[in-house]
């Protein structure tokens, strides 16, 4: 069978081509190219360091815009690169067509990038574990440290593939690419956790992780961050509430307890690593945010607020009334900016996130990256705890310490509290997809919302498989599309 796997190469993008079994007999020029490109230890270290920076950049990057729209964290009627299609309601089916000019911005973005980082990690793993290469940096043996980092990059990238797509490839140094098949998101998650656990094991008591050339995670923090992501990936993998009931809560709790003890917010390295999701979603223009805060967030701050903006053109909502001081995370404006009435006034809002606003530019040296907050880890812990314990955890989190809200210790109240906290406290204060992942595993997404992305049609076209997609009103409740059974609009 014809196999062309477009993202498997020995470079920053993956590319291996098979047109028939006979093709496997040709000279492997990739091997020679790899040896020339990675002739020096500094070349190998540079490849890995670049992949490490880039995987972190991706999980706080541009592709999160679409996921925030799907989770009703942000709203828009702006059709630029299909933003509107992911915010519109009733929910639209993802346009997974190779002729869709925007495919590379949404469905294709994470696929290409995350697979490329996995390939870079595999290159390092191959050099060290199979070829027996030792790596030295200024005379110091860093072989084990870089091997640990390679497994971390691979595990983190696989984890986000498992969270975002319905299936993906699991590629290891010894994988027979001619027989490569897709694995389920559960299988990809398991591979992710295995690799992240191995990165922690290899880190021992000395390995560090270079984020960029101005910031390196010390050993203890490195392992805490890895454990925190293992908790997030494990709990976030479920697509429905029924599936989430089978999550290994004890395992998640163990990762949480070995996780971060303070916010993981390393500093921006200008033009190298910055929070591009925040940069887009806090951009302010024409009297309103370019990708403003959805009315959902304001509804939770003020239960008298509607769940859809009034369609009467004469109505402009007043500011919310809330006893939660965190209402000041958001700024009210009577202007609607880029929001177009002709594309659905029900999508309108009067708010944008001012908490992370920094003069229309987050690509500024030293600004916190907001990759993983302690609050998010507390909310994950609450989710896998008994209602009584969860209430105590929530009271010790920003919900109680900043919002001055006490949570009753019942399952229903804890569920409401967690949705509130994800919507308010974690808005632009977590990595991409956090709200989408949380809401889908609790059936809180609007009906018709995609639960995951399909493999990009551009990839399916190359490997000769049929196109498919998720989402839309015609597919409500079917595999990969939200039923809306516990929609946030009913809270």
From TrEMBL:
Domain of life of the organism encoding this protein: Bacteria
Signal peptide span: 1-22
Full protein name: RagB/SusD family nutrient uptake outer membrane protein
Keyword Signal: yes
Regions annotated as coiled coil: none
Positions of the SusD-like N-terminal domain: 41-208
Any Pfam family the entry gives: SusD-like_3
Record key words, sorted: Signal
Phylogenetic classification of the source organism: Bacteria, Pseudomonadati, Bacteroidota, Flavobacteriia, Flavobacteriales
Keyword Transcription regulation: no
